[in-house]
Structure formats: C-alpha cells, structure tokens
Amino acid sequence: MTVQRSRRRASATPEADTGRPEPRQPIIPLSDPGSLKGMDRSFAVLELLAAAPGRVVDVTRALDLPWATVHRTIVQLEKAQFLRRDPETSRYHIGPRLWHIGSAYLATHRVLTAATPYLARLADMEGIAIQVVERIGWQSVVIYSHQHVDEDITKAHYGYHFPLHCASKGHVLLANAAPSFIESYLARPLERLTAETVTDPQALRGILDSVRETGFSLTVGDVQLFAASMSAPIRDAGGQVVAALCFVFRKNILKEEGRQDLLQERLVHAAHSISLDLGWRHGR
Length: 284
What we know:
Residues 1-34 are annotated as: Disordered. This protein is of the alpha+beta class. It has 9 helices and 9 strands. The protein has helices spanning 38-51, 56-63, 67-79, 96-107, 110-122, 167-175, 179-186, 201-214, 259-277, and strands at 8-11, 83-85, 92-94, 128-136, 139-148, 161-163, 217-220, 227-235, 241-250. The longest helix has 19 residues, at 259-277. It is globular, with a radius of gyration of 20 Å.
C-alpha cells in the first residue's frame, strides 16, 4: 500500500520514511541464548535481526554462539529468503519470504476484522492517531494506525513498539496480563524513555491496579514529551484482553475544554463495541 503524505494520513502497512528507531531489545525474551539449538536458534536469529539489522559478528556476540554456527544458520536463512544481505554493509535484514508469511497474520487478524467498522467511524477525529495495539513478549506493538492530523505524530505508526511500562497502551496490556508475567516483567530493569516514564515497580503496581479497576489509562509525556495517549482494553469472548484501542495526540489537546472527556467516551465506547463483536459480554 502506498502511503501519501497529506492532511489525512492512514497507515495499514509500515512506512519507509517514518524514521523508525532501532529497538533497544528483542520483542520476545530469550531466556538462555547460549543454549539455543536448531529451530530455536533460527528463531532467535530472526528475532534479533528483526529488532536491528546486523552482521554475523553482531549476532554472534548478542546470542553468545560460535561464529561458524551463526554463519551457517544465517546462510541457510538467506538462501530461503527469510533474510537478505546488504552487500554494502554486510548487514542482514528481514527478507521477503518472512514478510510474506508475516503479512498473512494481519490479513486474517480476528481483532482487526472486528474493529474495521468502528475504526472507520473514528477516522475523522481531528488531531488523533488511532491505534490497535497488542502485546508481543515484553512490548506493545502497533498493528494498525491511522492519523488525521495537520502535523504528523512521530512514533505513532504501524509497527512501532515500546516496553509495556511505557504509554497508556502498554499499561492496559500489562495490567491485564497474568500476575506471574507482571511480576517477572517488573523484576527486570525498566527503561526510562523520558523524565515522565514511570520505572519504579511499586508505583507501576499502583498504576496497573487503577487501570484494571477503571478499564482505562491516560499517560502524558512518558514516551515523547510533547505527546499524550489514552487506551482501553479490547476483550474476547472469554473476557481476556487481546488488544488495546489507543488514541495518541499532542498533549495540548487536553487543555481544550471538554476534549478529554469526549475522547475518553468515544474510545471506551469503540473498545466495548469491538469486544462485543468478539463475543465478550460484560459480567460474564
């Protein structure tokens, strides 16, 4: 899909000009990279290079594996077109065959299918980036984004991902994860993206408790100082939170009289409607 820069900006595929930063860590936790074998090793290599393209030596260091083992794995993946090599830098990137396989994930995504009519009704909201986000490992990942803004909101496009303790979408997804996952996540070193990012585990536990109680999250300046976001959970027939609906906007919008309440009302209503279409029933 070709993305055109205009006042109305929609994105359902990654954009080449977004300036997407290299992630700071793999999306999926690798418990013991040095013990990886066979298919697990191939998956770890793909995960690492998806996070940040690199050379064989970079993968060797990151996974603590012998150079010959990593080289053999990468060559096999390149031959199968799961990876491609940049001849100028010798760095390996995700290849076309893996993209083809991955694109099928969104093409048949149950949440996106259910959300489509409700996202269309929200598309005319001025100054808002509308996102559908899901949890993959330690990250919240944007699987849909649409912007109707005069000035592009950076880091709000399809494909961006952030640690779960950052932004309202991460709080919604982390708050509704299994208690054991939450505790293991909070036991890790937590990255501070801005001075407003909450990284204290005890403070985060309080935030997550509030999100579970209210079914809503609002954060300001914790990913980008100029931006704010609000999110609500999307639930499936079993009541499990399978995604978050998120609005991202410039924080000065919150100063407009009545705007926050209106945004929250539309957000929560849309998230509930999507959940109902997925089979969720309140109180079940």
